[in-house]
Design a protein that fits this description.
Helix content: 25-40%
Distance between the termini: 31 Å
Number of helices: 6
Oligomer: single chain
Structural class: alpha/beta
Order of helices and strands: EHEHEEHEEEHHH
Radius of gyration: 20 Å
Strand content: 15-25%
Length: about 190
């Protein structure tokens, strides 16, 4: 049986530099997805033309820069993460090859073999964020799972997180004692009754 071996991480996109190559519908989808979770993400979108919806989205996010230009390899300087989503597979492949030469993580839209990472489904309830991956096999399944979890996870889960954080600050003792106490308090979360 195949197993999902992806390693999930939560990136602080306001601290790193992201480049998106492509200003069409897929570029809009990638940027929208990113800004939904990280509204202050540092993103530059490069394209020869932009659809109006992408321009409107960028207008509402000062940390997003639109650069009307053909992709040039110098645009990869001082980047941490790259997404290529043009309608030209040759350009996308070139972006991928150049990103790999520079040890940048890269995602080529709709081309799993040319992806170092996938953008999965994300549920956010205050400080609680859950990411869902289908190993690049079915974005639609990730979307449906996201919709399901958005309904079943209570809105007040954030209040619980905030209360536990305040309580954690009052605990005395060494790290192991604090972890043990927090485990005892949160044990009820996994109780299936």
């Amino acid at each position: 049986m195949e197993r999902n071996e992806l390693y999930p991480i939560f990136l602080k996109l306001h601290n790193i530099n992201v480049l998106i190559v492509g200003g069409g519908n897929v570029g809009l989808e990638k940027l929208s997805f990113m800004l939904k979770s990280s509204p202050n993400a540092n993103v530059e979108v490069v394209a020869t033309k932009f659809i109006p919806e992408l321009e409107a989205l960028a207008e509402n996010h000062p940390s997003v820069i639109l650069t009307q230009s053909k992709f040039k390899k110098k645009m990869l300087k001082k980047r941490h993460m790259v997404i290529a989503c043009t309608d030209d597979l040759e350009i996308n492949k070139r972006v991928y090859d150049l990103a790999r030469e520079r040890y940048l993580i890269c995602n080529i839209a709709d081309t799993p073999d040319l992806c170092d990472y996938y953008l999965g489904g994300i549920i956010t309830k205050g400080n609680v964020k859950i990411a869902i991956s289908t190993n690049g096999k079915s974005p639609t399944t990730a979307k449906r799972l996201r919709e399901f979890f958005e309904e079943v996870i209570p809105e007040d889960v954030n209040k619980m997180v905030e209360n536990l954080n305040e309580y954690r600050k009052t605990l005395k003792g060494n790290f192991e004692e604090k972890v043990q106490r927090m485990n005892e308090i949160t044990e009820a979360l996994k109780n299936k009754e």
